[in-house]
Amino acid sequence: MAILKPMAADDQRGSATNRVQTAVREAIINLELAPGSMIDKAALCERFDVSRFPVSDALARLQTEGLVEVLPQRGTRVSRIRVSDVRQAMFIRRALEVEMVRTLTATMPDSVLDQLDLNIQYQRLAVERVEPKVFHELDLAFHNLMLDCLGYQRVNTAIDSARASLERARRMLSSPRRHADTLAEHEAIFRALAARDAVAAAEAMQNHVDTVLAELMALMALQPEVFDQGS
């Protein structure tokens, strides 16, 4: 058996940086670190048992991702959610996903319809049991089933990018009432696909996206401190 060489100092630092970056990113996306809150570097060093260098490297990477910002003489804080990013992401999703379901009414195999039907049954259970994390995963899976069936990789990439811009805002909307409404909207999309009705499918998807956008805009008015109104 080959003897593993000790990890070089640069490799150790890189591994620690990745660990801190992943954990802090998840905390930001999950809203454990609220938009606009300051990040305590010393606390991160203590939590991960690392020096300040990996923490600084990790925060620099997260700044590149747009998740944190450095304030001169003050420190690092979690970036607020950019309103322009939300609007653009929803515009992209509306344009692509409405056209997606319009196309799929003529091409979707019955086997995929069966998978969508099963997914909705699980969504219904998640709503009844008030399981937000499970519902969120099923919500993503519902849309991914349609995207995979469409088979256009560039469309997948564009929508994945749009989702990333929306993730924190969407999690702020999470509630039993929103999940029940989303389920009803998904059911309308499914019924139209099953009926092979392109017009109804497009209308159902457009209503789904527009309803979420309207609620996001209302949330921005209620919690302006969380959002960045800049361009």
Automatic annotation (TrEMBL):
Transmembrane segments: none annotated. The keyword DNA-binding applies. Keywords: DNA-binding, Transcription, Transcription regulation. Residues 14-81 form the HTH gntR-type domain. It comes from the Bacteria. One of its GO terms (molecular function) is DNA-binding transcription factor activity. This is GntR family transcriptional regulator. The lineage of its organism: Bacteria, Pseudomonadati, Pseudomonadota, Alphaproteobacteria, Hyphomicrobiales.
